[in-house]
Design goal:
374 residues; alpha/beta; FAD/NAD(P)-binding domain; 2 domains
């Protein structure tokens, strides 16, 4: 295989890229994976120290290799990174690290990918960059006045540097919940979470079984049946835990990933986390909320989510309203030889979707590659 040409070029050596590489190799399709960092799973190395998957190991592994029996039910960040390294070594995957993509173009039925090393060419392109590498940082009125520090949750590592500080976390996804709880459980940190639109909260386990496993089991049932099951779970939770602490959003738990686990609502109930509404503006010392109340803070953490890392296309592919590439499942609307793995998120878990999507991508690519050669 030429160093600069391959049938399939995969951008990103995280779980999505490695799973797709494995599936292509099993089919005998020529491929290469390029990774911007110095190791596989680089984006995961940049996450906070205490990160632990809220999806169970039985539905979080990649095709061809399960987590070891000694791995906890909910793998830690280090468990996952060790697993990814072992995956590459076990299957001898073709990975080129420290190779950052700067631009992607398409002409003459070939993909041209400019990188920090050279230009690479391929018939098929798989984007497996995920979203962790592209934090979404919204602009707030007056934030330039704020005398404290504002960071995205992507830059948060541990509570150590927040001792004795007044900390505001803005947002209410799983990262927001986990970081806020970790701060609250360390003495000497005054923690507030600002929630504008609310969130659905589900238990980490239901009847002792990870909630994700229930989602996998019922995913093929009719929507009406699943809606009924969600309603029953919500009534059960209310009876067990009392009325919801967080505002209820306009969307169902089936339509967008919920906050998994009750730790954040428990800490709000016991007073270790202060709950506030949306932010109107920043001041020199803190923020003004939408209800007009003002509060001072030393640190602000924006747990405002991520967007697809698609700047490399320089606007040459169409995006949906959430900033993801417009596609039919995993295939781009714009180019039949462009695939996205690791961009589907649902209640069954991102890693579980990767397990299926990587094999689908490999099969479709294999079929189309064979047709081109016929």
């Amino acid at each position: 295989m030429s160093q600069n040409y391959t049938d399939v070029l995969i951008i990103g050596a995280g779980p999505a890229g490695l799973a797709t590489a494995y599936a292509l190799k099993q089919l005998g399709v020529e491929y290469c994976v390029i990774e911007r960092g110095k190791q596989v799973g680089y984006a995961w190395t940049q996450t906070y120290d205490s990160l632990t998957l809220h999806t169970g190991k039985h539905f979080s592994h990649l095709p061809g290799m399960k987590f070891s029996s000694s791995t906890p039910l909910f793998p830690s960040k280090s468990n996952l990174l060790d697993y990814l390294s072992s995956y590459v070594e076990t299957f001898k995957l073709n990975i080129e690290t420290d190779c950052n993509v700067t631009r992607v173009t398409h002409n003459n039925n070939r993909w041209k990918v400019d990188t920090s090393r050279d230009q690479k060419r391929a018939k098929f392109l798989v984007v497996a960059t995920g979203i962790i590498s592209n934090p979404f940082v919204p602009a707030f009125d007056g934030q330039e006045k704020f005398s404290g520090r504002i960071i995205h949750s992507a830059a948060y590592r541990s509570p150590k540097e927040y001792k004795g500080k007044r900390v505001l976390v803005i947002g209410i996804g799983n990262s927001a919940a986990e970081i806020t709880v970790e701060l609250a459980q360390n003495n000497g940190i005054d923690v507030t979470i600002a929630v504008r639109s609310g969130a659905n909260v589900v238990p980490l386990r239901l009847f002792g079984v990870p909630i994700q496993y229930h989602s996998v089991l019922v995913q093929k049932l009719p929507r009406s049946v699943r809606d009924m099951m969600v309603s029953v779970m919500e009534k059960f939770t209310k009876a067990l835990k009392g009325p919801p602490v967080l505002p209820k959003p306009s969307y169902s738990v089936l339509d967008r990933q919920p906050v998994i686990g009750y730790k954040v609502v428990n800490e709000i109930r016991n007073g270790r986390i202060n709950l506030r509404g949306g932010i109107k503006e920043f001041t020199n010392g803190g923020v003004v909320y939408e209800d007009g109340a003002a509060e001072d803070f030393d640190e602000v953490i924006l747990a405002t989510g991520y967007r697809s890392a698609l700047g490399i296309f320089a606007g040459n592919i169409s995006l949906d309203e959430r900033g993801f590439a417009r596609r039919e499942g995993i295939v781009s609307y714009d180019h039949p030889h462009l695939y996205f793995v690791g961009h589907n998120y649902s209640t069954i878990g991102g890693l579980r979707n990767i397990y299926h999507d990587s094999q689908l991508a490999a099969r479709l690519i294999g079929e189309r590659n064979a047709a081109l050669r016929a």
